[in-house]
């Protein structure tokens, strides 16, 4: 019985955070500034192992941070292009399978894509979103 109540409270807290547009789940290991610094260090030729050791993170965390940094940079370019082409500033767009890009008051916001979006695998095992994405 207590398990049911605990799940209901957790679902309520999650819904309240979503309504306030707050992040859900574990906080990120690295800030945006740290991800930018890591990307600059890797671009300057410093080995990934050395950068990871300097920040006190695993190499896999470093590579995920680089991937996210790259996606955010692409989202910024996409946002500028979208704003120039359409003039629409607040229309949410699916940027990748991981992020939804929304421009609010001229500020670019990437938020995680909704969990539970129907997905379909092709013959090679690649994931594809299905349904009403743009």
Structure description:
This protein is an alpha+beta fold and 134 residues long. It has one domain. 49% of the residues lie in helices and 15% in strands. It has four helices and five strands, in the order ααααβββββ. The strands form two sheets. It has a three-stranded antiparallel beta sheet with strand order 1-2-3, covered by helices on one side. A two-stranded antiparallel ribbon has the order 4-5. Helix 2 (32-43) packs across helix 4. The model is unreliable at 115-119 and 130-134 (pLDDT under 50).
Q: Can you count the beta strands? A: 5
* Radius of gyration using CA atoms only: 18 Å
Outline type: extended
Low-confidence stretches: 115-119, 130-134
| Biggest sheet, spatial arrangement of strands | 1-2-3
Q: How many distinct domains? A: 1
Mean pLDDT level: 74
User: Count of DSSP helices?
Assistant: 4
């Amino acid at each position: 019985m207590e398990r049911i109540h605990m799940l209901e409270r957790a679902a309520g807290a999650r819904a309240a955070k979503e309504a306030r547009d707050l992040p859900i789940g574990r906080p990120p290991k690295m800030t945006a500034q740290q991800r930018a610094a890591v990307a600059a260090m890797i671009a300057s030729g410093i080995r990934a192992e050395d950068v990871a050791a300097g920040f006190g993170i695993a190499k896999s965390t470093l590579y995920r941070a680089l991937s996210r940094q790259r996606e955010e940079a692409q989202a910024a370019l996409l946002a500028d292009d979208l704003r120039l082409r359409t003039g629409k500033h607040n229309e949410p767009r699916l940027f990748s399978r991981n992020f939804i890009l929304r421009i609010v008051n001229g500020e670019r916001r990437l938020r995680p894509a909704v969990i539970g979006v129907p997905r379909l695998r092709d013959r090679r095992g690649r994931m594809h979103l299905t349904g009403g994405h743009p």
